[in-house]
Amino acid sequence: MEIHESGEDYLETILMLENRMGYVRSVDIATEMGYAKPTISIAMRRLRESGYIDVDQRRDIHLTATGREVAERIYERHVTLTRILESLGVDPTTADHEACKIEHDISADTFSRIRAYFNEHMDQ
Fold it and tell me: Rounded to two decimals, what is the model's pTM?
């Protein structure tokens, strides 16, 4: 199942909200991302149909194993890339915004090498 950048952003947001609040509803995603509720509803339907999320009877949104895997991968990239950019002197807000752009386009191999390099040199 191929997922696009916007889908990765939704899954990452669901993970962050779940970690912060313990539950996630569409309205929480809309508020967090600054999108209209109908936009979120369409996106959640697509993610559900693709097997990335489930929605229970209370309308709480839950990541499936596949959705959680994607969300955690993207979140790790986001956090790591933000830290790297900040360590280079980039303003935290800018670093966060630009990490979000980079996290979707970088290959797993390149990210792994950047992370290893950063970790090796940050320990010194």
Answer: 0.87
CB 90 within 8 A of CB 98: yes
* Span 45-89, pLDDT tens digits: 999 999 999 999 999 999 999 999 999 999 999 999 999 999 999
Q: Which residues pair with 61 in a beta bridge?
A: 55
What pLDDT, on the 0 to 100 scale, is given for residue 32? 95
Site of tokens 């992370």 = 115
Question: Is 73:103 a contact under the CB 8 Å cutoff?
Answer: no
- ∠ at Cα 16 (22, 90), nearest 5°? 150
CATH code for the part of the protein at 72-119: 1.10.60
Domain boundaries, the chain: 5-69, 72-119
The class (CATH top level) of 5-69 is: mainly alpha
